[in-house]
Design brief:
Layout lengths: L16 H8 L3 H8 L7 H14 L5 H8 L4 E6 L5 H16 L3 E6 L5 H13 L4 E5 L2 H5 L11 E4 L8 E5 L1 H14 L6 E4 L5 H16 L8 E2 L4 H11 L7 E4 L2 H13 L9 E6 L12 E4 L2 H16 L7 E5 L2 E3 L14
Parallel strand pairs: 1-2, 1-3, 3-4, 4-5, 5-11, 6-7, 6-8, 8-9, 9-10
Antiparallel strand pairs: 10-12
Helix pairs in contact: 1-2, 1-3, 5-12, 8-9, 10-11
Length: 348
């Protein structure tokens, strides 16, 4: 439709692939190859096509391209919480690794871990057009009878114990916890207390089981378990309790944030770290080296977990297959100044 002066009201026409081809002096097929990032186009031609695209304001139709190629170059991520360091750093690693492969990431947080919510999350991701889904969820959810993942969706699971039903990538939680507890025993502590993560967490359960196993194997009676919720505040509350126990000379804490709260409470009660109480954390967050004193902790390789998740997801997308079962990423004990031999009165 034109106005009274004969001008179109529809605005300027969107540049087409043919327009780009004419301006660059190449075929539409060459423009398509450049647009899709295919090899086989010499650098001079590629620069000419890109310059023509920029001059004309041409934008490739990614949706049409995806339908034609049968892929959307997008990975969906479903997670039930972004409140923990592990989930956030794993998500960051997934996004970085996906970008390096030319894929985008669509995040879908799920507030309530129920079958309906999980099913709805997968439905929404399918509507958003993703090639595969990475799920960051806890073991108890996957093992529950109410939770199943759609069989037709390419799925990789993080932080779980789903066994052979899915492709799982996780940190070696048990190995890291064992190293932490053994370090404290090797320093000469009679036993090691444990400030655990929440009951519903797979990672917390793995670390607790390993703590108890190492003490039992060493002939030591595990002290009563102290429960936290990953937060610094819960570590502080637990520290108020443990600081009053003169028999507590070593604590393995399930994450670094709780270890920070614990050290704060110990300081308030006049219990020095590490002279009176040794503390080991888990995660090796960037701030751990700057605690007072710097925290001995178990380092998780979140970047490698993210890379392996993306690699497994893309193998599924490309039809190359991905082994079911669990791939464990090793941990490393980082010894700093928060651990030492116990006070003389506690020496064996």
């Amino acid at each position: 439709m034109a106005d009274g002066r004969g001008r179109s009201r529809r605005g300027p026409r969107t540049a087409s692939m043919a327009d780009v081809a004419r301006l660059a002096g190449v075929s539409s097929q060459t423009v398509s190859r450049v647009s899709n990032g295919y090899a086989g186009v010499n650098e001079e031609t590629r620069r000419a096509v890109l310059a023509a695209m920029q001059e004309l304001g041409y934008r490739p139709n990614s949706a049409a391209r995806a339908l034609k190629r049968g892929e959307f170059r997008t990975i969906g991520v479903i997670t039930f919480t972004l409140a923990t360091t592990g989930n956030v750093r794993t998500l960051e690693a997934i996004a970085t690794s996906a970008a390096q492969e030319g894929y985008a990431v669509t995040l879908l947080p799920v507030a309530v871990p129920t079958q309906d919510e999980v099913r709805g999350a997968f439905s929404r991701l399918e509507e958003l057009a993703v090639d595969a889904v990475i799920v960051i969820m806890e073991v108890h959810l996957l093992d529950a009878a109410t939770i199943t993942l759609p069989p037709h969706v390419q799925v990789v699971v993080v932080d779980s114990d789903a066994g052979d039903r899915y492709t799982v990538v996780d940190t070696d939680q048990a190995g890291g916890a064992r190293a932490a507890v053994q370090h404290l025993l090797d320093l000469g502590h009679r036993t090691v207390w444990h400030l655990a993560g929440p009951e519903g967490s797979f990672a917390a359960q793995r670390r607790t089981d390993a703590w108890r196993a190492v003490l039992t194997e060493a002939g030591r009676v595990p002290p009563p378990l102290v429960q936290g919720d990953w937060s610094t505040e819960s570590g502080y509350r637990a520290g108020q309790e443990l600081a009053r126990r003169q028999d507590c000379t070593a604590v393995f804490v399930a994450n670094d944030q709780m270890a920070l709260g614990l050290q704060h409470a110990l300081h308030e009660h006049g219990r020095r770290v590490p002279e009176d109480v040794s503390v080991v954390g888990f995660d090796d967050i960037p701030e751990a080296a700057h605690f007072v004193p710097p925290l001995t902790t178990v380092q998780q390789d979140f970047a490698k977990v993210g890379r392996l998740c993306v690699r497994a997801a893309l193998r599924k997308v490309r039809g190359e297959g991905a082994e079911r079962g669990t791939t464990l990423v090793p941990t490393r004990l980082v010894v700093r100044d928060s651990t030492a031999a116990p006070p003389r009165r506690d020496a064996p």
